Amino acid sequence: MAHAIRFHETGGPDVLRWEEVEVGAPGPGEVRIRHAAVGLNFADTYFRTGLYPAPLPAGLGVEAAGTIEAVGPGVTGFAEGDRVTYTGSPLGAYSTERVMPTGSLIKLPDAIGFETAAAMTMRGLTSAYLLRRIHPLKAGDTVLLHAAAGGVGLIVCQWAKLLGLTVIGTVSSAEKAELARAHGCDHIVYYREEDVAERVRELTGGEGVPVVFDSVGRTTFAGSLGSLARRGLLVCFGTASGPVPPIDAMQLALHGSVFVTRPALADYIADPAERAELAGELFGHVAAGRIRIEINQRYSLGDAARAHRDLEGGRTTGSSVFVL
Asked: Which residues form the Enoyl reductase (ER) domain (predicted)?
């Protein structure tokens, strides 16, 4: 029998259950995948707590990599034995195997292992759209990156250097600062001890930065706004500390006619051609060694509750995966 992590009520990590599930045969446009590795993402906790609503009972997880074992009617472009990775709906990646629509699947080059794929597909594609789609960044620009030692942060730091950008990164500890620096972060700000906006102004000659990448949310929002240059862009792409506060439009004017966006990865990979382009650029950098994917935590799938406690407790760095 296949197994999966499921939850029947929202709440803390203890609501997660390891259950036997019946997978069945793939239907039209679907394939059955045996997972080799599953990604652990902070967004998974939003579904578990109910911040992102899901019909209950529900599976969990949106990112994994593995091998296609069976192909349903009408499927083109994929065959039994293909190595694939994915990020996206429906929920249910926390499983040993599952049936999946082909719309979210990406063929995985032989040069990239399953664990690496599970650790980077969501984070890597997020980094790709942040740096390559959301703002016309150019060599010489400086950006502020919150959670610089996180999974997305370490990829963004490396990719930013390839683009000639200067990165100011916020972290919570000396250990995380060292990790961020080792991946290309130029300047470190300890956001729990320093005034982020004041420090950014010091580092930029009083101008601020054209773009802030903020995955933390509530606790960093004010500092992020205060760090922007005139007509700068605040990219709120995560809410690890809670949702951002209500936005007062007049405050955007007072901070220099700045902009705020709350993007979702799904809207940047909805078009198959664009998804393939972003994935191709990401895979090319990783396969060539220009971007290193740090897997600093590995868990068994049945130990999902502990993994969530570590994630929410700030005890993880880089990427985390479940290994099957």
From this structure: 11-322
